[in-house]
Amino acid sequence: MGHGWRVSLGLCVLVLSACGQGNSSTWKSFPVPIYADSTLLSRPGGSDDLQAAMSFWEQKAGKKLFDFKGQWSGGNPYVGDAAAPTGAVANVIFFQNPWPFAMEIAGRTTVFPSNDGIAGSVVMINPEIPLCAGDCAYQQNVTSQRKDFTHELGHFIGLNHSPDINNIMYPVLQPGGSLDSVSIDAAALTAAVNNGG
């Protein structure tokens, strides 16, 4: 049901997965409202890395994509079981605890399509995975939360994985946290964000 994203971290392999991808659904309009949970916002660099991830996509798209609403405090942002949610109460990026997937899965984005586009999306991040903040300048072998968030928000706006190793949507996370040297598929981004107004 998902796509794997393998990340080398010492002897571990981390997988990020995107569920509900591969369809042609797009958001009806942008910017899309999105929240973050208190754990994400309060962890070191969490708020800054989330803002950097949203800004990355908005700069690449040349338009505002996210209407960040702040902290989500409404309970589970999804309908159903965490391992197989059936709908979104709200669009939220959050640390899912307990983590319902294999421990090597570092994140999972679920997009819920409707007849006329995307109805909602939730981005779950594994709270058990050690993540470094910012550019990870002194922690090159630790998974970057900035790149993790950016990759998952790419799925959130409708992008699939890329075969290009330099692309932020490539299934294997490259070292470091800087977004300066990563590329995107401009045509795929244009198709995703321009169909949505």
Word description of this protein:
With 197 residues, the chain is of the alpha/beta class. It has one domain: Collagenase (Catalytic Domain). It is 21% helix and 31% strand. The protein contains 4 helices and 12 strands; from the N terminus they run ββββααββββββββαα. It has helices spanning 38-42, 46-61, 145-156, 186-194, and strands at 2-3, 6-9, 12-19, 32-36, 66-71, 78-81, 84-88, 92-95, 105-114, 117-125, 131-132, 143-144. Strands 1, 2, 3, 4, 5, 8, 9 and 10 form an 8-stranded mixed sheet that branches. It has a two-stranded antiparallel ribbon with strand order 6-7. It has a two-stranded parallel ribbon with strand order 11-12. A hairpin with a 2-residue loop joins strand 9 and strand 10 (117-125). The longest helix has 16 residues, at 46-61. It is globular, with a radius of gyration of 15 Å. 43% of the residues are buried. The model is unreliable at 1-13 (pLDDT under 50).
Give a quick rundown of the structure.
With 197 residues, this protein is of the alpha/beta class. Helix content is 21%, strand content 31%. It has one domain: Collagenase (Catalytic Domain).
The overall strand count is 12
| Overall mean pLDDT | 86
Low-confidence stretches: 1-13
The CATH fourth-level homologous superfamily: Collagenase (Catalytic Domain)
How would you spell out the order of helices and strands? EEEEHHEEEEEEEEHH
- CATH architecture term: 3-Layer(aba) Sandwich
Q: Based on Cα principal axes, name the global outline.
A: globular
Spatial gap, N to C terminus? 28 Å
Name of the level-1 CATH class: Alpha Beta
Tally of distinct domains = 1
Decide which structural class fits the backbone.
alpha/beta
Helix share of residues? 10-25%
Instruction: Calculate Rg over CA atoms.
Output: 15 Å
Number of helices: 4
Q: Provide the CATH topology.
A: Collagenase (Catalytic Domain)
